Amino acid sequence: MNLLPRPVSYVDGGRLCAYKGWETVLVDGPAGGYRLLSSDDGVLIEAHDAAGEMNALQTLRQLLGAQAFRAAGEKPAVIPACEIVDHPRFEWRGVMLDVARHFLPKREVLRYVELLSVHKLNVLHLHLTDDQGWRFECRRYPKLTEVGSWREDSRFGDRRSAGLKGRPHGGFYTQDDLREIVEYARQRHITVIPEIDIPGHSQAAIAAYPELGVHGGGVWTDWGVNERVLNTEESTADFYRNVFDELMDVFPSEIIGLGGDEAPGHDGELVRAIARHIVRGGRRPYGWDEILESGPLVEGTVVASWRGVEGGITAMRAGHDVVMCPEEHVYLDYRQSESLDEPIPVGTVTTLEDVYAWEPVPAELTGEEPGRLLGAQANIWTEHLDSARRVDYAAFPRLAAFAEVVWSPPEKDPGFVRRLAEHHLPRLDALGVEYRPLSGPHPWQRLPGVPGFPR
Known about the structure:
Layout: E1 8-10, E2 16-18, E3 22-26, E4 34-39, E5 42-47, H1 50-64, E6 78-80, E7 82-86, E8 92-98, H2 106-118, E9 123-127, E10 129-130, E11 133-134, H3 143-146, E12 150-151, E13 169-170, H4 175-186, E14 191-198, H5 203-208, H6 234-250, E15 255-259, H7 269-280, E16 284-288, E17 302-305, H8 310-317, E18 321-324, H9 327-330, E19 346-347, H10 352-357, E20 373-380, H11 388-395, H12 398-407, H13 416-431, E21 453-454
Parallel strand pairs: 3-5, 8-9, 8-20, 9-14, 14-15, 15-16, 16-17, 17-18, 18-20, 19-21
Antiparallel strand pairs: 1-7, 2-6, 4-5, 4-7, 10-11, 12-13
Helix pairs in contact: 2-4, 6-7
């Protein structure tokens, strides 16, 4: 449980104890789990592993109150006398952050790593390339960043009715930047999973190296599905083998993302070729559920089920591991209410309550499938989120609801919104997160006149 761990049994009627620090002992138990005991003698943490200790320390921080989340200032001196026994429900508790459509500076990615840790989330999936920008420094192919990392303009709002902003946009991460992000996350027991998207969503790469594409063209300034995809030449497969070699050198994660989504007219052979190359490198490929439609998957492939849960069910029944991230439940760029005040309203209405009500395990599963449900992931696409402030607005507090869903037992707490308002929003305030208020956006969070495309 993330916002107020449960079960909680208070010692001596819930009296307060002076906070004197903690002692940690490693014990047997579920991965990531812990027992926290607070008394006059101090705090004792019994943890299964180092991740369990980190989770316990985040709970301890919660118990100390919102002031404990400030970077400086007077710190709390008391803590409730209590015993808390807690562990995560799923091993994959993730967030996909799209830094390709709108680039987030390194400092903001590091901030999101910290926010994931606060919410006991443990996977950061970085969407590093798309039609609108290439964000990974590939030393063998420098034009990928020299040309592909910036675009001349950006659509402001939905492509069906919006104009252009009239200014360039760009940026990329050096390999040293990314190694820093990986290490910062590792210290917080968060795995960073990179994604280079192929064969679609590749216009930025084609702009840099036109021989990769079926058609030419510059870095895309529009949103949506682009019909310009990579060609099927062996030279293109060789190019991407070299790119993924550098990617795997920077990112030590077992799982490496290769996209595979929304590629009109492509037969999937390039995806299979790169998947085999990832496996030869000792890693596991990770792709969106469209990869199921182009023949048998390479052994070890993990499937992200985004077009509903059906793809994930099919993959598990075929023996593949799955991460559930269906757009109708956990796409956090989708609008948060029917109100006209919602900025750039796209997608279906996905309220805080909708996210909290979601159950990641489909009812159709029997528990006897040869593949595993690793967990779930919330996706933050940034076509319409052009700054860290806009990302905060879209992500929070819905990401707090998602974090509780993937940590806690499936039973829902009717007091969730009350607990959020009373206990967790003050923590977000202390952290400086510019979340959407429960009553609707602040005046400065609205974008009147910028068209969206609500469904």
